[in-house]
Amino acid sequence: MLKYYLCRKLNMSTHTYISDLKKAIGLTVTLKGWVSNKREGKGIAFIVLRDGSGYCQCVVTEENSSALNLEIAQSTTLETSVEITGLVLADEKQIGGVEVQVNTINIVGESIDYPIAKKEHGIEFLMDQRHLWLRSTRQWAIMKIRNTIIFSIHKYFQSEGFVQMDAPIFTGNACEGTSTLFETDFYGAPAYLSQSGQLYGEAMAMAMGKIYTFGPTFRAEKSKTRRHLSEFWMIEPEMAFYDIFQNMDCIEGMLQTVIKDVLDQCQEELKTIGRDTAMLESSLKPFPRMTYDDAVSIIKGEKSVNGIYSIQLLEGEQKAAEAKTAEIDAEIADKEQQINSGGLKKGQINFFTTKIIQLKQERADLEEDLRNIPTWLESARNFTYGDDFGGSDETVLTKLFDSPVMVYDWPHEVKAFYLKRNPNDARFARGVDVLAPEGYGEIVGGGERETNVESLVEKINEHELPMEAFEWYLDLRRYGSVPHSGFGLGLERVVTWICKLKHVRESIPFPRMYGRLTP
Ligand code: 4AD
Ligand code: MG
Questions:
Q1: What DSSP line would sit under 286-326, residue for residue?
Q2: Which residue CA neighbors atom 31 of ligand 1 most closely?
């Protein structure tokens, strides 16, 4: 026991994490990490060290260290691993509010010709280098936010009295439709990688009251959209004695806990990835809830939201984007002309050049809007009542709100077999989708479950699912059936929205997608 205690004490005093440096001002510490950036001047080297817990600037000079150490520091390369001892000084201008005055530096592992340079790389190259790309600042920040989201989800459910239980990954039958299953071999018999743990979740809820699963799920569509992963993590709570409205309360409570925790704990990371947090902050008020019928009227521009109609909004956005593009073009032309006129100093030229790059990026984003808006307008004008929502419909609808919205009571034909019908209007199934703003679309799908055995049997036949595989599921209705509800939250979809990423592939350490199985 004493030995264990001493070891722990020793470990803690021999190695400090960057995230703890603010507590170590005035002390000499040992840091262990990787060189994420390096600059050098005459007689001085600045190393930005990263250790996973954070970043800090380490300054090496001959007078505070030695000629040899300065030489080592000056010759280190990107991603070399090092052990540094030095004095921690307060410096509010530096990342993390500290700077380390280096006494000694030792190389732990060399890094020669690190493939990811500071310059821009194409996305396919970065995806091939994902094992290294994860070390970059932006990816680090996204993974930190992902971690906060995961912890926050557990915190929410645990504090609400849910029991975490796991559903199997090998399954004998489909849950969300047969066309999107990955088939595998289970001792000579076909088995499928689970699309959803829900059916097992329902069984577990009848045993434990309120449960949630947290595990990988698989979808085999050959989809190349920016929202689709073949393997993603889903959180699936299931609650006995909850109706669809209590289900929506639970979804809102969980998502708002997550958003609040990210805002409270990840300000630095959000800043690193350039996430404007206004939409996250406005998502802390109740999410609008509407039926499918109302959502369709809003999409089609027949019903307004606070006096605003979808079609007019889109037409206005198109005009504004056109005007802004013209404005940017004029500004770029003006800056280029000034640079070419020859009368500028070097500093001014650099300044204008940087500005032109920024303007061109802004223009590229506007061009994307200008390409998309006509598609959105067309799908809004031509939406056929009774259809499921596509990505464009979700974008049009959410544009009218400044938080996620919940759409419930869907035409039963477009939803899964297990959803309960609205007792007052059997045309509708009690499903609920949560759609994120800013064009991110569905992040949660769920609903109240059918409890009537006859209705379920009818639906299972209608969906041409093998009845014998569902006998156990029907047992849940034969023995002490109760009203119950649940939902599935796609972790990566939420990370993608909260971080405002362009593509879901950056929201998971090693994405699995159509056409991508490595690294
Ligand atoms: O809407 P889905 O298909 O619903 C279910 O699987 C239900 N059984 C959940 C339940 O009620 N327990 O999937 C739920 C969520 C979606 O809203 C989306 O966030 C995410 O899972 N999702 C995906 N995320 C990434 N890539 C994919 N291919 C996804 N498919 C669904
Ligand atoms: Mg869905």
A1: PPPEEEHHHHHHHHTTSS-BTTB-HHHHHHHHHHHHHHHHH
A2: 490
